[in-house]
């Protein structure tokens, strides 16, 4: 089972990202579970959402406190040592940042990937909403979910041009990571 | 009467409950000055006054002896009498 | 890449839905004539979805917007008395406000179906989950079924109507699903088709109903010489429900191919020395923990309470026979008493070979209950804990002015 923690700020579409990621993984043939850390939701406050992906029915429902993959939606949250340190030793962090991972110098063991999601979103969508963009990066880094499924689910979740632009932005983030890997 | 689910009852079951024995005073219809104005019948809360001009009477199985008929009679043709007298 | 070319057979007819949406989709297929509700977190998504369906013309129900939960329940009471199939949903303070009417609905023997998206009660103000709200109306004469996951919550509503409307029962049924933990979680569920639900759930045939064509009185004044008998009749109806709940679950399995009903579920209880007892969504985390503890050599199992009222005394006693230790995990507290669910469990075991029963208050007001919490419970139980214990209690939070 893979446990994913999406860490962002209220209004950044963290819960929608969890829903899209889970639905995409489900479309790829996996069992899934997605839920927010239910709180008094307010714009700007740190918010967590969780996704579990497994090849069999998922039962455990406690919150994800020790994720395999951590998605950081907002660069200003990189300083939260508690959340950053909660990732499994062999885990992965994918952060929205224009800086290179090495420049951030945050962590030794976990693989830290950065993607300039804000810039990608501004160019492709016109607003700095990075949730679907980060999922594109997620697909490229982890290979756990297919990019095609994420794009399809994003377009199903956001109707019309918004959905299409988001799918396009996810593709760009995916390509960006792939290029970084080369 | 058997108890039904949800204590459902058909209408009119209060007929089984004869309230005449609540009475302390009973109305006596004198049939002297009666004009047939029907006030006694219309005002009876139990709906037990029957008859017409100069023949009004009531059903003592249910009359509770409230005295409203005697009170409203404009020609004082109804008197309330103590039961048993 | 783990992408599979084809979905496994078990996922074929499923879709990923939020728990609230799954319940709304199923309630829609039960064709209620009248829906009335007042919004309260975390129940709101359910009735929001239903209101949308009515507005979109997908659901031919009368959706009555009201100014309080007391009125929502009253609308359901009145509508059900005229022979309508009704639905409402609430949480927490909303259920508290409904409680007066719930006693009336039950006493009038009206088969209203409602969802309780479980949330604790104020004060202190908290929107998060525990079972304090449902247990508050334990004695009202409302059948209470607790769901483990979103599928079970959805399936239970279909069964709830069948159970409530059976002329031998005629009592309201409340499906309890953990607020947020189930209502706001997206997971794969199978939503039956309208045809499938219609084949299982026939239109409601009221035993008595109000109509000007054939007047009658309901819930008449009752003097001391008859009141006891009326309550006895309600209790008897609950006893009938005890036998009907498993039958309806079997019937449901024949129609839908899944068993999601019944009174209790025993998980790995065969040779168990230690048993967890719990209700609601916590059961899923316990099952995984039981598997892990089993692998480590502990003979441990789980008894899940699905039907809380009527309480399955016999089934519980049978399930716990031969067990040495029982941990009852309570998501509610009887302040000044010892365990609400534990009292039922202990009473079921009275007069038998009795195991040690420990009462563990956990997860109040949304506190996360983790595998570590469950392991701690297991340890405390093995140390002989039998009184009331508070799981993950952080005494360092309590200030000096604590009397």
Report on the structure:
The complex is a heterotrimer of chains A (182), B (85) and C (403). Chain A is α/β, with parallel strands linked by helices and 182 residues long. In chain A, 41% of the residues lie in helices and 20% in strands. Chain A has one domain: 3-Layer(aba) Sandwich (Pyruvate-ferredoxin Oxidoreductase, domain 3), CATH 3.40.920. Chain A is built from seven helices and six strands. Chain A has a six-stranded mixed β-sheet with strand order 2-3-1-4-5-6, covered by helices on one side. In chain A, α1 (14-27) packs across α6, α5 (131-142) packs antiparallel against α6 and α5 packs parallel to α7. The longest helix of chain A has 22 residues, at 160-181. Chain A starts with a strand and ends with a helix. By secondary structure, chain B is an alpha+beta fold. Chain B has a domain at 19-54. Helix content of chain B is 12%, strand content 16%. Chain B is built from two helices and four strands; from the N terminus they run βαββαβ. In chain B, the strands form two sheets. Chain B has a two-stranded antiparallel sheet. Chain B has a two-stranded antiparallel ribbon with strand order 2-3. Chain B starts with 24 loop residues before the first strand and ends with a strand. The mean pLDDT of chain B is 92. Chain C has two domains: 9-256, 3-Layer(aba) Sandwich (Rossmann fold), CATH 3.40.50; 264-397, 3-Layer(aba) Sandwich (Rossmann fold). Helices cover 39% and strands 17% of the residues of chain C. In chain C, the strands form three sheets. Chain C has a seven-stranded mixed β-sheet, sandwiched between helices. Chain C has a six-stranded mixed β-sheet with strand order 9-11-10-13-14-15, with helices on both faces. The N and C termini of chain C lie far apart (59 Å). The chains are: A alpha/beta (182), B alpha+beta (85), C alpha/beta (403). Chain A binds chain C through residues 18-19, 22-23, 26, 28-36, 38, 40, 55, 57-63, 65, 143-146, 149, and chain C through 1-8, 10-11, 14-16, 18, 42, 127-128, 149, 180-181, 184-188, 281-282, 284-285, 287-288, 366, 368-371.
């Amino acid at each position: 089972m893979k446990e994913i923690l999406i860490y962002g700020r209220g209004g950044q579409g963290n819960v929608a990202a969890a829903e899209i990621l889970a639905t995409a993984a489900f479309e790829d043939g996996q069992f899934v579970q997605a839920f927010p850390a239910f709180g008094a939701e307010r714009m700007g406050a740190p918010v967590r959402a969780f996704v579990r992906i497994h090849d069999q029915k998922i039962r455990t429902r406690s919150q994800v406190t020790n994720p395999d993959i951590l998605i950081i939606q907002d660069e200003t949250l990189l300083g939260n040592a508690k959340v950053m340190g909660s990732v499994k030793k062999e885990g992965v962090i994918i952060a929205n940042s224009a800086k290179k991972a090495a420049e951030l110098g945050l962590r030794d063991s976990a693989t830290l990937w950065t993607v300039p999601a804000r810039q990608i979103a501004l160019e492709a969508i016109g607003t700095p909403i990075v949730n679907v963009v980060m999922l594109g990066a997620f697909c490229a880094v982890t290979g756990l979910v297919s990019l095609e499924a994420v794009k399809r689910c994003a377009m199903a979740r956001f109707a019309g041009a918004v959905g299409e632009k988001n799918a396009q932005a996810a593709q760009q983030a995916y390509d960006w990571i792939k290029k970084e890997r080369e | 009467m058997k108890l039904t689910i949800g204590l459902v009852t058909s209408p009119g079951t209060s007929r089984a409950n004869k309230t005449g024995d609540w009475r302390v005073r009973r109305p006596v219809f004198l049939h002297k000055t009666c004009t047939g104005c029907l006030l006694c019948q219309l005002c009876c809360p139990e709906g037990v006054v029957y008859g017409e001009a100069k023949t009004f009477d009531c059903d003592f199985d249910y009359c509770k002896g409230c005295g409203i008929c005697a009170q409203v009679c404009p020609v004082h043709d109804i008197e309330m009498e103590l039961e048993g007298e | 890449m783990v992408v599979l070319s084809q979905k496994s057979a078990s996922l074929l007819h499923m879709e990923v839905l939020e728990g609230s949406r799954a319940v709304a989709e199923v309630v829609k297929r039960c064709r209620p004539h009248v829906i009335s509700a007042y919004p309260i977190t975390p129940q709101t998504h359910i009735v929001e979805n239903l209101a949308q369906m009515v507005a979109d013309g997908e659901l031919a129900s009368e959706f009555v917007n009201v100014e309080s939960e007391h009125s929502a329940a009253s609308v359901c009471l009145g509508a059900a008395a005229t022979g309508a199939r009704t639905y409402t949903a609430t949480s927490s303070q909303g259920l508290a406000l409904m409680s007066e009417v719930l006693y009336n609905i039950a006493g009038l023997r009206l088969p209203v179906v409602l969802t309780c998206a479980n949330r604790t009660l104020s004060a202190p103000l908290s929107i998060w989950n525990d079972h304090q709200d449902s247990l508050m109306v334990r004695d009202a004469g409302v059948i209470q079924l607790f769901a483990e996951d979103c599928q079970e919550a959805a399936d239970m509503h279909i069964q709830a109507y069948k159970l409530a409307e059976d002329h031998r029962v005629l009592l309201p049924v409340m499906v309890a699903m953990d607020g947020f933990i189930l209502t706001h979680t997206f997971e794969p569920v199978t939503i039956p088709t309208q045809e499938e639900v219609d084949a299982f759930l026939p239109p409601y045939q009221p035993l008595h109903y109000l109509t000007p064509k054939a007047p009658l009185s309901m819930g008449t004044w009752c003097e001391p010489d008859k009141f006891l008998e009326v309550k006895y009749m309600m209790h008897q109806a609950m006893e009938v429900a005890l036998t009907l709940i498993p039958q309806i679950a079997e019937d449901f399995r024949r129609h839908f191919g899944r068993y999601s009903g019944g009174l209790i579920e025993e998980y790995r209880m065969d040779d168990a020395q230690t048993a967890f007892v719990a209700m609601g969504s916590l059961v899923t985390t316990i099952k995984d923990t039981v598997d892990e503890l089993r692998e480590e050599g502990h003979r441990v199992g789980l008894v899940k309470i699905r039907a809380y009222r009527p309480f399955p005394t016999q089934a519980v006693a049978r399930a716990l026979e031969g067990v040495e230790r029982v941990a009852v995990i309570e998501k509610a507290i009887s302040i000044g008493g010892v365990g609400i669910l534990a009292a039922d469990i202990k009473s079921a075991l009275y007069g038998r070979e009795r195991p040690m029963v420990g009462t563990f208050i956990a997860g109040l007001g949304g506190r996360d209950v983790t595998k570590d919490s469950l392991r701690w419970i297991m340890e405390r139980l093995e140390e002989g804990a039998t009184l009331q214990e508070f799981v993950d209690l952080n005494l360092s939070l309590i200030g000096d002015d604590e009397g």
